[in-house]
Amino acid sequence: MNDNYTRDLKENLDAVLDAVVEAGFVDRDKMGLGGHSYGAFSTVNALSLMPNFKAGIAGDGMYNRTLTPFGFQSERRNFYQAQDTYLDMSPFLRADKISGALLLYHAIEDQNQGTDPISSRRMFLALQGLGKQAALYMYPYEDHSVATYASDLDLWARWVAWMDTYVKNPKPAQPKAALVP
Hints:
The chain is of the alpha/beta class. The chain has one domain (5-168): Rossmann fold. Helices cover 38% and strands 13% of the residues. It has helices at residues 5-22, 38-49, 83-88, 118-129, 149-168; strands at residues 32-36, 55-59, 101-107, 134-139. A four-stranded parallel sheet has the order 1-2-3-4, sandwiched between helices. α1 crosses α2.
């Protein structure tokens, strides 16, 4: 069961990040993360819980656990038995807290019952509506993971460009235009 998922994710990431920064492996101001499927779900949760990451890449994930009401991964309870847990584990409900740029991708023909493409579309629309830096790429004729050579090359090119843009060589924040009466 996942009653402590978000707390444990945040505490574990805090500990790992402190250790790798102290060891000199990473620059705390230049960190990104990514994942696929449950890893994508965890990536977006991490972005919504911690301000450390400048960018994230999430593919074929589920970001609103109310769309999987009869369990997922190790969660044996259904939504009606554990509503608080399902809501707490839904980074869609914390989209306003995401500070890093998020690249979403999803295979249009995803047959995994727990990762319907609607989740990525809705997450992107939420981020767009909130004025967050986000992009969504949908891959036609692909299942839960891209399998064609062309899609694979496209995906890797987008990943590298995304991390180069938002982590490796970020542009300084531009001041927002103000309306002067």
